[in-house]
Design goal:
Blueprint (H helix, E strand, L loop, with lengths): L1 H17 L35 E11 L2 E15 L5 E9 L10 E6 L11 H5 L8 H16 L2 E5 L11 H18 L9 E7 L1 H16 L1 H4 L2 E7 L5 H8 L8 H13 L9 H10 L4 H4 L8 H4 L11 H10 L11 E7 L10 H13 L4 E7 L3 H21 L7 H4 L1
Parallel strand pairs: 4-5, 4-6, 6-7, 7-8, 8-9
Antiparallel strand pairs: 1-2, 2-3, 3-5
Helix pairs in contact: 1-3, 4-5, 8-9
C-alpha cells in the first residue's frame, strides 16, 4: 500500500506540474459540526425537495493528506434520506479528472471506509484541508482515489454516514450514496449530464454503502440504476453482527465492537446505557467521537459480554438489536441489476480478521442463483488491510472494463 501511495502521489504531482498550475496556500479547515455549510437552513421544508437536490455548493482547494494541491473540487450539500425514511442532508465532494481521457465524462462514486463516529474523519473534511491521525483510513483512501482521477474519471465521494455519522447503518448509507450520484449529476459539474454513466466502489465500511446502494438502486433510485455499469465491493460485512461476533475477543479488531454498536444505536435510536455495564458505558462514551483507526488494537481481548450487563451478554439477547439485525443483512431483497464485483480476503479459517469470508462468498452465490451478474475474488493468505491493497487495482481494472462494455468474466458457475 505504501508503494501504491507513493507511485500515485508522485504521478499526481508530476501531472499537475505538467499543466503548469501553482499550488494554493494551506488554509485551516473548519470541522463539519462547526461549519454552516453542512446544515440546511432554507425556508422551504426539507421534505419538499426531491432526493439528490443540491441545496448548497462550494468550490474548495483539493487537499491530499492535509496538503493543498492545484486541483479544485466541488462540495455539495444535498437532500437525502435517513434510516427511518425521514428527509436528511449530507455532503459529497466531486473531484475532476486530472486528464481528459474519455470523450464523455464517466462518473465513479467512491465510498471511503471512514467508519466514523467522530466528525474529524468525514471525507469532505479531508478534501477541504482537515487532517489528523484519526483519519489514517481516510488518508489511505485518498491515495487509492488518485488511480481514478489519473485514469480520467470524475469521482464523487459522499459522506454516506450522514451529518450525524450513523456508522454501519447500511440502508441509510446506500441511499446517501445514490443521492450523492444524483447530486453530482444535478449539479452538472465538470461536464456531467443526462447521458453520463456511473459506477460505484468501496471497501470495508465503504462496501456497506456500495453494496446497499447497488441493492436499493432499482427501487429507491431507478434513474441512477439505469446509468450504472457496475459496482465493486470488497471486504464486505454482509451480516454486521456476525462480523462483530468474529471480532469478539480479538487482539486487533475488538475495538470495532463498541464503534459499531454506537453507530447503530445512533441510527436506530437505541439507548445503549440501558443494556451496558459500567465498563461498557465508559467505553461507549470514549468511542462516541472516534473513528476506526482510534480503536484498532486499543482494546485487545474486549468482548461483547464485558460491555453489557450479564443478562445482555450477547447480541441476540437484546430484542432491539435482534430487530435491527434483520434490517442489516445484505441480500434479503431482490438482487442488484447492475453487474457486481465482490471480493474478500481470508487469513484464518473464518476470514480476514474482521470479515467472515464465507458470508461474502455466500452472498455472491445467492445473487448468482437469482440471476445477477457477479464476479467474486478471494484473496487467500491476506488479512483485511492487505486485502484492501489488492482490491483497489482489481476494482479499478474491473470498473474500467465495465465502462468499455467488455463482457464480464463469468464466475457464477464456479461458485456452485
Amino acid at each position: 500500500m505504501r508503494r501504491l501511495t507513493l507511485v500515485l502521489a508522485v504521478a499526481l504531482i508530476a501531472a499537475l506540474a505538467g499543466i503548469g498550475v501553482q499550488a494554493a496556500p494551506a488554509t485551516a479547515a473548519t470541522l463539519p459540526d462547526d461549519d454552516p455549510f453542512y446544515s440546511y437552513t432554507g425556508s422551504e421544508p426539507l421534505g419538499s425537495f426531491a432526493p439528490g437536490t443540491v441545496l448548497k455548493r462550494r468550490v474548495v482547494t483539493h487537499h491530499y493528506v492535509g496538503l493543498p494541491t492545484p486541483l479544485k473540487v466541488t462540495q455539495l450539500l444535498y437532500r437525502t434520506t435517513g434510516t427511518a425514511g425521514e428527509p436528511t442532508v449530507t455532503v459529497a465532494t466531486v473531484v475532476p479528472p486530472v486528464f481528459k481521457t474519455f470523450p464523455e465524462p464517466r462518473l465513479v462514486s467512491y465510498q471511503y471506509e471512514y467508519d466514523a463516529l467522530g466528525q474529524q474523519c468525514t471525507p469532505s473534511y479531508f478534501f477541504s484541508g482537515g487532517f489528523n491521525l484519526s483519519g489514517g483510513a481516510t488518508a489511505g483512501e485518498q491515495s487509492a482515489l488518485l488511480g481514478y482521477i489519473l485514469s480520467g474519471y470524475t469521482v464523487v465521494v459522499p459522506d454516506y454516514e450522514g451529518t450525524q455519522r450513523h456508522f454501519a447503518a447500511g440502508r441509510e448509507s446506500g441511499m446517501n450514496t445514490l443521492d450523492g450520484i444524483r447530486a453530482a449529476l444535478n449539479d452538472k459539474s465538470y461536464g456531467l449530464d443526462a447521458t453520463t454513466k456511473a459506477a460505484m466502489v468501496g471497501y470495508s465500511g465503504g462496501s456497506i454503502a456500495t453494496e446497499w446502494a447497488a441493492e436499493l438502486a432499482p427501487s429507491y433510485a431507478p434513474d441512477v440504476n439505469r446509468r450504472l455499469v457496475g459496482a465493486a465491493a470488497g471486504g464486505v460485512p454482509t451480516d454486521l453482527p456476525h462480523n462483530l461476533e468474529y471480532a469478539d475477543g480479538s487482539l486487533l479488531w475488538a475495538g470495532a465492537i463498541p464503534l459499531g454498536l454506537v453507530g447503530l444505536a445512533r441510527a436506530y435510536d437505541v439507548d445503549l446505557d440501558k443494556y451496558a455495564s459500567d465498563y461498557g458505558k465508559k467505553i461507549f462514551a470514549r468511542v462516541a467521537d472516534q473513528c476506526i483507526v482510534d480503536v484498532l488494537g486499543v482494546y485487545p481481548g474486549l468482548t461483547f459480554a464485558k460491555l453489557m450487563k450479564p443478562q445482555y451478554s450477547s447480541f441476540d439477547k437484546i430484542a432491539e438489536f435482534v430487530t435491527i439485525r434483520k434490517k442489516l443483512v445484505m441480500g434479503q431483497g431482490n438482487p442488484p441489476t447492475t453487474p457486481l464485483f465482490l471480493a474478500s480476503a481470508k487469513l484464518d479459517r473464518t476470514g480476514d480478521g474482521i470479515i467472515v469470508t464465507d458470508d461474502v462468498k455466500n452472498l455472491a452465490r445467492s445473487y448468482c442463483a437469482r440471476g445477477a451478474a457477479v464476479t467474486y475474488h478471494q484473496y487467500t493468505g491476506l488479512e483485511h488491510v492487505g486485502g484492501f491493497a489488492v482490491f483497489i487495482p482489481d476494482a479499478l481494472n474491473w470498473i474500467s472494463a465495465r465502462f468499455r462494455g467488455s463482457p464480464q468474466p463469468g464466475v457464477c458457475a464456479r461458485l456452485g
